[in-house]
């Protein structure tokens, strides 16, 4: 039996599209920040008495497509380890599921860590990153803390994440505006492929990401939060332009998303450096220097209740520990 804890990450430069759906190899590189406030804890044990994998999330049994996805992932672990037993999987998500807050990133990173250790594997973090990717692309980044780059690669061996700065030693913070904790109607997986196939701007997007990656890494090296925030905001808007320009067009925004964007822009007009980003969901994340935190929270509280404003700092990488049955 083994348990792992992994944190979500929010992409500052996003990938939005896969070259290989089975191996989950992306069209572009990406770069993210691991968050300390949102995480998943998962316990796995292999049991020769089982006739099928038994999976619970937040104490509720998982069936149907969700269970099949986890079993497919466990099959990869079984193949790597030479084990054949089915597994008990008990997972607790401290982040809303499928709400654009990267729940699948922490979930599959934690599952990769716990399942591989329970199966007797002792994987390096790079190999764990490769394994987690097979469950959810963004999970490849949640193996590491701080600021993390995912190299798109071209096959299973070359597509993995590396840390850029695991201990973020300057004032970078991120605040999540909890617009909605409900499940989104369009999955990231479907939305990405729709954009890849039908947006006339997709080739331009790949050029945008290449440029943004260079700008973002330079901004991180310089501890330039304004440049980090500006680049992340423009990258997010251009990613969401791909959703609007697909056929049929779709969006992850709702009216409160637009209100949150407007609130961040008002703060900026008042001279406070803060910037927004959004993943595949309505919730808005705000990037800023922690020295401005109180003013930003006070400003956003004029539009949103304070209990919907969750402050996060750069979080840690995966933790894995063995347990006795």
Automatic annotation (TrEMBL):
It comes from the Bacteria. Keywords: ATP-binding, Lipid biosynthesis, Lipid metabolism, Lyase, Nucleotide-binding. One of its GO terms (molecular function) is diphosphomevalonate decarboxylase activity. Residues 175-306 form the Mvd1 C-terminal domain. Residues 6-161 form the Diphosphomevalonate decarboxylase-like N-terminal domain. Its EC number is 4.1.1.33. The keyword Lipid biosynthesis applies. It is an enzyme of class 4 (lyase). InterPro entries: GHMP_kinase_C_sf (IPR036554), Mev_decarb (IPR005935), Mev_diP_decarb (IPR029765), MVD-like_N (IPR053859), Mvd1_C (IPR041431), Ribosomal_Su5_D2-typ_SF (IPR020568), Ribsml_uS5_D2-typ_fold_subgr (IPR014721). Signal peptide: none annotated. Pfam families: MDD_C, MVD-like_N. NCBIfam families: mevDPdecarb. Belongs to the diphosphomevalonate decarboxylase family. This is diphosphomevalonate decarboxylase. The lineage of its organism: Bacteria, Bacillati, Bacillota, Bacilli, Lactobacillales.
């Amino acid at each position: 039996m083994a348990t792992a804890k992994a944190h979500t990450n929010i992409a500052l430069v996003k990938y939005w599209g896969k070259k290989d759906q089975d191996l989950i190899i992306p069209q572009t590189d990406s770069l993210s920040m691991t968050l300390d406030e949102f995480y998943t804890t998962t316990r796995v044990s292999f049991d020769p008495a089982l006739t099928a994998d038994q999976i619970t999330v937040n104490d509720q049994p998982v069936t149907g497509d969700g269970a099949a996805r986890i079993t497919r992932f466990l099959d990869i672990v079984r193949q790597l380890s030479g084990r054949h037993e089915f597994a008990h999987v008990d997972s607790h998500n401290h982040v809303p599921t499928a709400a654009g807050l990267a729940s699948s990133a922490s979930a599959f990173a934690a599952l990769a860590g716990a399942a591989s250790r329970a199966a007797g594997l002792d994987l390096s973090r790079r190999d764990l990153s490769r394994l987690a990717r097979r469950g959810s692309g963004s999970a490849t980044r949640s193996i590491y803390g701080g600021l993390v780059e995912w190299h798109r690669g071209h096959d299973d061996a070359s597509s993995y994440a590396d840390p850029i700065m695991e201990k973020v030693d300057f004032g970078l913070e991120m605040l999540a505006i909890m617009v909605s904790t409900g499940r989104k109607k369009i999955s990231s997986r479907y939305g990405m492929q729709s954009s890849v196939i039908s947006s006339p701007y997709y080739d331009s997007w790949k050029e945008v990401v290449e440029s943004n990656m260079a700008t973002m890494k330079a901004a991180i090296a310089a501890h330039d939060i304004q440049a980090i925030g500006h680049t992340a905001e423009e990258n997010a808007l251009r990613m969401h332009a791909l959703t609007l320009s697909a056929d049929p067009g779709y969006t992850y925004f709702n009216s409160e998303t637009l209100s949150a964007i407007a609130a961040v822009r008002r703060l900026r007009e008042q001279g406070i450096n803060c910037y927004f980003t959004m993943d595949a969901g309505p919730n808005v994340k705000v990037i800023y220097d922690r020295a401005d935190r109180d003013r930003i929270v006070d400003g956003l509280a004029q539009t949103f209740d304070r209990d919907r404003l969750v402050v996060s700092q750069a979080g840690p990488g995966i933790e894995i520990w063995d347990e006795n049955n």
